[in-house]
Amino acid sequence: MNLLRTIKATLLFWCCVALATPVLAQQTNIAEQDVPPELAALAADSYADKGKAIQALIASDHPRTRTWLTTLLDGKLQRIKESGRFVIVTDNRGRDWTVIDAVDDTPLGEVSRRNIDRITINNALRNQLRSAMAVLDLDAPTVQERLASADRLLGKVDVNLAEPLAARLEAEESPAVRDKLTQALAIYQLQSGDSAAISEAIDTLSGSLNPAVRAALNGVAAGEGEAAESARQALAGIEQKLKLNRAAETLYFGLSLGSVLVLAAIGLAITFGVMGVINMAHGELIMLGAYTTWMMQQLLPGQPGLALILSIPAGFLVAAVAGIIIERSVIRFLKGRPLETLLATFGVSLILQQLVRTLVSPLNRTVVTPEWMSGSLVINEALSLTLNRLYVLGFALVVFAGIMLVMRKTRLGLEVRAVTQNRAMARSMGIRATRVDIMTFALGSGVAGLAGVALSQLTNVGPNLGQSYIIDSFMVVVFGGVGNLWGTLVAGMSLGVINQVLEPWAGAILAKIIVLVFIILFIQKRPRGLFPQKGRAAEG
Amino acid sequence: MKKWQVSSRWLTTSLVAMGMSFPVFAQEDDPIKVGILHSLSGTMAISESTLKDTMLMQIEQQNAQGGLLGRQLEPVVVDPASDWPLFAEKARQLLEQDKVDVIFGNWTSVSRKSVLPVVEELNGLLFYPVQYEGEESSGNVFYTGAAPNQQAIPAVDYLMNNVGVERWVLAGTDYVYPRTTNKILEAYLKDHGVAQEDIMINYTPFGHSDWQNIVSEIKRFGSAGKKTAVVSTINGDANVPFYRELGNQGIDAADIPVIAFSVGEQELSGIDTAPLVGHLAAWNYFMSVDTDANYDFIDSWIEYTGDEEAVTNDPMEAHYIGFNMWKEAVKKAGTTDVDAVKDAIIGVSVPNLSGGYAAMMPNHHITKPVLIGEIQDNGQFSIVWQTPSTVAGDAWSDYLPGSRDLISDWRKPLECGNYNVIEKTCGGGEAQTASQ
Fold first, then answer.
1. Are residues A165 and A99 in the same domain?
2. What is the mean pLDDT of residues B233-240?
3. From the list B174, B219, B271, which residue is nearest A211 (CB)?
4. Which stretches does DSSP call E strand in B166-283?
5. Do residues A266 and A185 both lie within one domain?
6. Are the CB atoms for B180 and B436 separated by under 8 Å?
7. Residues A69 and A143 both lie in one domain
8. Which of B45, B202, B376 lies closest to A75 in CB terms?
9. How far A216 CA lies from chain B's nearest CA (Å)?
10. How many cross-chain Cβ pairs, A to B, lie less than 8 Å apart?
11. Looking at residues B58-79, what average pLDDT do you find?
12. Which residues in A lie closer than 8 A to residue B378 (C-beta atoms)?
C-alpha cells in the first residue's frame, strides 16, 4: 500500500516535471529574447505607424534590418500571442506553423496558428518596403540585381531618395543601370516644379517605352503651360513607337490563341477529319491529359518541371489507351452512323466528366508552372512575350510537325490514308483495316492528351476543361477543311489572330460571335473549308 | 344557453389542447427534415458541393447535441446538377414529396430566380448563402450572403479613400450579378465625381481562358498617370487564368491592385498565389479571421472532411449563420411551422465567426462586417481593413434610379418586399426588376 502510494507520487511528480519543463524552457527563452526597439516598433497598430517604424529601422543600420524587412514583406514576421515574442514563420501551410526566433534564428518548433499574431502590411507598406529594399540592392554585386532594383525605383523616388540616388549614379559603372537611374531621377524632377529641370527631364525621358515614364509624362501633360506642351510632344513620339509594338503584341496574342486551338483540334483532325468519326468525348481526352500532368506532379513533388516533361509521353499514353477503350467499346459498333456516334460519344464525355468528379474531386486541381515557364521574355519595355504561351506555341508546332511526319513518312500513315480513301480496296490489299482504325483513333486521342498537358499550363485543370474546347476544335477542323492537317494549322492560327484583332474593339463576347458568324458565312460559300480534299476520295 | 356556451368553449379548448398535444406526440418520433439544394455535379459542383458538406456537418453536430425541440434533424440532399430549371423541380420535390421544413441552397442568382416562384407558391423557407446583386426580396427567402452595400460599395470606398484610386476597371463575367453590380458601382463612382473616361467596363463569357488582350489593355489603361484599380466580378473558374496572366504580364498589386468579389479561399486553392500577393478581395468572412469561434469552426471542418488542407470560405460562414438563425427561430417559435418561423426569425441575432453578431433584419437580409483582405502566398487572405461595425444588408440599392425609393419590410402589417415609399404602394419594383 505504502509502496503503491510512493510509486503514484513519483509518477505524479515526474508528470508534473514533464509538463512543466517545456513551459519553463519557453519562459527562459522569452527572457532571452531581447527585442530591439526598432523591431518592436514594427508591431504598431496603424499602418502609418508601421511605415514610420520601417523608416526608423532602415535608418538604424541594425545588422538584421534586411532579414526583418524581407520577412515583413513576405508576411512571415509575426508574434507569439502570449509572450509577444517576435518570430519568423518558415512554413505557413496547415494549422501548425514552423517558426524560428526573429532575433537569433533559434528554431522554436511548431506553433498553432491560433497563438500567432500576424504583423500585417498593406499595399502601400509593401510599396515602401520594396523601394527600401531596392535602395539596399543598389549596392548589390551583380549588374542584374542592380538593374532590377533601379527598375523598381522608377516613379517611386521621393525627396528622401533623390540625393542618395544621385550619389549612387555617380558611382555606378554599368551604362544600363546608369540609364535607369537617370530616368528614375528624371521622373522625380518632373514633379519638382522647376521649369528648367522639368524640360531637361522631359528630354531625358522622351523615347522611353517604360509604363512608369509614360504615367509620369501623362501627369505633366494633363497640366498647362510650356512643360505640358513638351510633355505632350514627347508622349506623341512614344505613342508612335508603341503602335508598332502593339501590332506585334496582338500578332503574338493571336498566334498564341491559335496554337491552343491547333493543339486542341489536331487530334480531332485525325479522328474526325481522317477517320470521319464524330467524337464528342475529344474534350475529355484533353482533360485526361491535363489530369495526367497533375498526377505526375503529385508523384514527383518538388520537381514540377521534370514532372511536366514526363507528362508529355504519359499524357499521350493515358489518352491513347482511353481512346482505344472508347473505340473498341462504343465507336466500332456504330460505324457509318454519325448521329448515333455523336450521341454515344457525348454520353461517354459526360461519364468521363462525372468519373473525374467522383474519383478525383469536383474541385479544380493545381498544376504548378515550373520556374522556367513563368514570367515573360522581355523584348523591350513595351513588348514582352509571356513564357508559358511561348512554350505552348513551340510545342504546338512540334506536335504538328510530328503528326505530319507520322502521316507522310511511316507505314501507319500510309495505311491510314489508304483505309480512309478506300476501305474495301485497302482491305483487299491485305491491310488490316480494324487494326488501322484502332491505331488511328489511338493516335488522335493521344494527341488530345498532349494538348491537355499543354493546356494544364494555361487554364484550369478541372472536370469541365474539355467542354470549353470541344466546340472550338470542331470549328477549326471544319473551317480548315475536313481531312486536311495543313488546313487545321492555318485555320487555327488565322482564327486565333482574327479573334485577338477583333477583341479590343468588340470585346471578348462579341469577338467570339463575329468569328462564329464569319465561319458560318464562309462554310456557306465553301462547304469544304479552306483546303478541301481533292480527287475521288473526297466524294466518299 | 349560457351554460352551453361555456361548456362549448371548454370543449373547444380541450379539443384544441388535445389536438395540439397529439401532433407533438407524433412529431417526437419524426425527425425535422432539412432540405439541401446544392449542385453536386456539373459546373457549379466546384463551389456548391462544399456547402452541402457544411450543412451535413452542422446537422450532425446539432444531432449530437440532442437535435432541435427534442427531435433529430434529417438532411434530405438532392442534386440539381448545375441545371437551372432542375433547381425548380428539385425544390418542388423537396417541398411536396419530402415535406422538408426548410431548404438551404443555391449559388448562382439564376438558380435562385428559378427556385423563387416554387418556394413562394408552396410557402417554403429558403436560406441563400451567397453574395448577390440585390434588387430582390422575397417573403420566403432569407439572404445570408452579402448585398451590394455589404461588399461592393465598401470595397470601392476602401480603394477610393485608403488607396487613392482614381481610375477604375470594372471587369466581370457576363451575367446578371456582375452586370447589376457594375451598374450600381458605375452610378456610385459617378456620384463621387469619377469621369466617364476614367471607367473602363469589360465583360467576358463564363470560363473565359484567354486573357492576354484584356490584361494588356488593363496595363495600358493603368499607365495614364492616375492610380488605377480593377474591380473584378469575374466568376469562378475564369479567375485562375486571369490571375495567371496578371502574374505573367507582371502586373503588380502595388501598381494596379485587383479587388475581387467572387474569389475566396476555395478559388485560390487552385492557383499558385505567390505572384498574386497583395491583390485584394472583399468578403464578410475570411478563413484567416483571428477568433476562437473561427478556429473551432475550421478544426471541426477539417475533422469532418478528413482533409488537412481543407479551406473554409464566406458562403460557408453564411450557412453557419443561416443554420443557427433558423435554429434559434425554431426554438423561439416552438415549432418548425413556416409562418411561425418566418415571424420569429426577424430580430434573431446569432454569433458570426468574426467575433461579432449577425441579426436578421425585417428585409430578410442580415447584418455583416465587411472585410478587405490581401492575398498571401499560402492562399489565405490577410485582413487589411474592416468596417468599424456591422452593415445591414440593403435589398434595394440606393444608387439605381428605379430601386432607390423601394424598401422591404416583412413584418406585419406592411409585409411587403418592395414597398415604394413615394407612391406608398407595394409592388412598385416588379416592373423595374423584370425590365432588368
1. no
2. 81
3. B219
4. 167-173, 199-204, 228-233, 258-260, 280-283
5. no
6. yes
7. no
8. B376
9. 6
10. 159
11. 94
12. 92-93
Query: Considering its fold, how many domains does chain A have in total?
Result: 3
The overall average pLDDT reported for chain B is 87
Mutate: best of B79, B213, B296, partner A, most A CBs <10 A = B213
Q: How far is B82 from chain A, CA to nearest CA, in Å?
A: 12
Q: Which three cell numbers stand for residue A530?
A: 479552306
Whether residue A497 sits in one domain with residue A434: yes
Q: Do the Cβ atoms of A458 and B244 come within 8 Å?
A: yes
Residues of chain A in contact with residue B208, where contact means CB-CB under 8 angstroms, are 508
B163 and chain A in contact, CB less than 8 A: yes
Closest residue in chain B to residue A129, using alpha carbons only: B254
Q: How far is CA B246 from the centre of its chain?
A: 28
B383 interaction partners in chain A (CB closer than 8 Å): 120
Look-up of cell digits 458560318: A520
Co-location of B209 and B275 in the same domain: yes
Rounded Cα gap, residues B203 and B181, in angstroms: 12
Confirm whether B16 is domain-assigned.
yes
Last residue of a domain, one of A123, A157, A191: A123
Put simply, the answer to whether A120 touches B384 (Cβ < 8 Å) is yes
Residue type present at position B77? V
Given CB atoms, is B93 within the 8 Å cutoff of chain A?
Answer: no
B203 touches chain A (CB under 8 A): yes
Residues 360-389 of B with CB under 8 A from A: 374, 376-378, 382-385
Beta bridge partner(s), residue B228: B167
For B174-223, the pLDDT digits (tens) are 888 899 899 999 999 999 999 999 999 999 988 788 899 999 999 889 88
> Rounded CA gap, A34 and A127, in Å?
29
Query: Domain check: are B234 and B295 in the same one?
Result: no
| pLDDT one-digit tens code per residue, A98-136 | 888 888 888 888 888 888 888 888 888 888 888 888 887
Q: Which of B226, B248, B384 is nearest residue A386 as measured by Cβ atoms?
A: B248
| Average pLDDT rounded to a whole number, residues A17-43 | 61
Q: Give B43's contacts in chain A (Cβ within 8 Å).
A: 464
Does B208 contact A at CB distance below 8 Å? yes
Residue A111 pairs in a beta bridge with A97
pLDDT by residue (tens digit) across A325-382? 999 999 989 988 889 999 999 999 999 998 998 898 877 788 888 888 888 888 887 7
**CB spacing of A386 vs B272 below 8 angstroms:** no
Q: Is B358 exposed, middle or buried (0-12, 13-18, 19+ CB in 10 A)?
A: buried
Its domain, for residue A113, covers: 28-123
Q: For chain B, how many structural domains are there in total?
A: 2
Range of the domain at B31: 12-146+290-367
State the nearest Cα–Cα gap between B183 and chain A, in angstroms.
18
ipTM value: 0.78
- Spatial neighbors of A170 by CB under 8 A, at least 6 apart, are none
**A368 contact residues in B (CB cutoff 8 A):** 272
pLDDT digits (tens, 9 = 90+) for A523-539: 899 888 888 876 555 54
Half-sphere exposure of B87 (CA within 13 A, CB side): 27
DSSP assignment letter at A365: B
Cα dihedral A402, A405, A411, A415 sign: positive
Give contacts of B 307-346 with A, CB under 8 A.
308-309
Q: Could A126 and B253 be called an inter-chain contact, meaning their C-beta atoms sit closer than 8 Å?
A: yes
**Phi and psi angles of residue A403, each rounded to the nearest 5 degrees, phi first:** -70, -40
Helix (H, G, I), strand (E, B) or coil at B408: strand
pLDDT band at A2 (very low <50, low <70, confident <90, very high): low
Give, in order, the Cα–Cα distances in Å from A257 to each of A243, A356, A496.
21, 27, 5
Average of per-residue pLDDT across B120-141: 94
As a whole number of Å, the end-to-end CA separation of chain A is: 102
